[in-house]
Amino acid sequence: MRKSTVVLFIIALPVLIIVGLVIFSGGGSVTPPPATTLTVWGFTSQANIQNILTTLHAQSPYVNVVYVQVAEEGLREKLLEQWALSQGPDVVMIPSEQLVEYQPFLSPAPATIPQYTYTTTKTLGIKEETTITKTDAAGPTADTLRQNFIDTVANDAVIGQKVFGIPLSIDSLVLFSNRDLLNQAQIALPATTWEQFIQHVARLTIVDAQGNLIQSGTALGTSINIQHATDILALILIQNGSTIVDPLTGKVLLENDSSAVQAINFYTDFARISKVVYSWNESQENALNAFAAGKVAYYIGFSEDDTTIKQRAVGLNYDITAVPQISTQQTVNIASYNVLSVAKSSKNQDAAWNFITFATSKNGAALYANASFQTPTRKDLLNELITTQGTTLYGILAGQALTAHNWYRGPDSGKAQSIISDLITTTLGGTQTTDAINATIQQLRLIQT
């Protein structure tokens, strides 16, 4: 994604050499832990997670982790196929908004997790012996998630009071702005509020005498050519006082009221030629591609889009700042993140949960953040970043993480995305906004039952 000089504090951990073994549990001997191979599937690269694997192996030499990078697309089908054959991963990375869908195939965190500590000493200063001590650590609970992680994690990862996953990092919607186009329009700083945003868009959009868009102030208002349209509309709905589904129960809370109507009309007005903020329509190319080509001044996306933009537009002069708010005093942000979960079919349940708890501990999460340059979800690490990074991109993302939430919780996130996408398209196509909202509410209720 982005490069940074940020280095989060990591407590030094000894690398242990095993020569002889003396094994204790309290005051008595115990059976040595069997050699275990864990298979972990994830979307991140091997390089991003390697430091976690290396450090964990140094602490727990009996565990060997085989990491396999997989694509998010087609993950469900691939997992079901593997699990049907009693194969597949012990630990798998799952999009947090899909956790309810996967829950029947996953194991919740146990009450306790056996942990083996290896320490090396010298007898008479000559012979080295490694002592293994077994302890039973408390497994993660809803309370420990609320204490250590951002609020949305406990909402999303706890099902029936049991923890089904823990995240390594989080992303949130941000504002990409073409610095050259803003300079030409004599706009010194990117918008921080929607009020500023619509004023800027009107100045940045260029339309010819035939109504054709020559330059777009922003890429908003449609669904088919905006990758994150449903997340952006959800952001505006929630900022304006609406709730789509209850974050704890999944109950549909969207109402056909003035807040929802205003939010939907605000979004679709950017694609209505009769409106002052008109800057986009359904005949335009993909929004991210248009921004990368220098045709769009403001693009809203997740910070991970930065990688794609850099690949497609070498030399493009742009900034990344916080996503606009109705009020900067009451911020609302949309999250995108994955959780590490344990497959119900795994024969290594304890070792799998031990891997997850280490990877998402302060040390493990810092190792991952320093390698991946992604925003951690742990409050202690976020506090460190906010304090040291301030208004840099890393600091902005850390601050946004604290108020970032998923807008959907339920059994079919793909269908929910499609329903919200249809809400945009039908409203833009001429259906009364109130009628479109009623249809959306009915369809959401159908998939939530």
What descriptors fit this protein?
449 residues, alpha/beta, D-Maltodextrin-Binding Protein, domain 2, 2 domains, eight-stranded mixed beta sheet, six-stranded mixed beta sheet, 17 helices, 19 strands, 22% strand, disordered N terminus
Number of domains: 2
Class of the largest domain, according to the CATH hierarchy?
Alpha Beta
Total beta strands: 19
End-to-end separation? 38 Å
CATH topology of the largest domain: D-Maltodextrin-Binding Protein, domain 2
Q: Mind telling me the CATH superfamily name of the largest domain?
A: Periplasmic binding protein-like II
Structural class, judged by helices and strands?
Answer: alpha/beta
Overall geometry: globular
Radius of gyration: 25 Å
Stretches where pLDDT is under 50 for at least 5 consecutive residues are 1-5, 11-29
CATH-defined architecture of the largest domain: 3-Layer(aba) Sandwich
Summarize the structure.
The chain is α/β, with parallel strands linked by helices and 449 residues long. The chain has helices at residues 46-59, 75-84, 99-102, 142-148, 151-157, 179-184, 194-204, 229-239, 258-268, 287-292, 305-312, 349-359, 362-372, 379-389, 393-401, 413-428, 433-448; strands at 21-24, 36-42, 63-69, 91-95, 106-107, 112-123, 127-138, 158-159, 162-163, 166-167, 169-178, 206-207, 213-218, 296-302, 318-322, 333-336, 338-343, 375-376, 404-405. The protein has 17 helices and 19 strands.
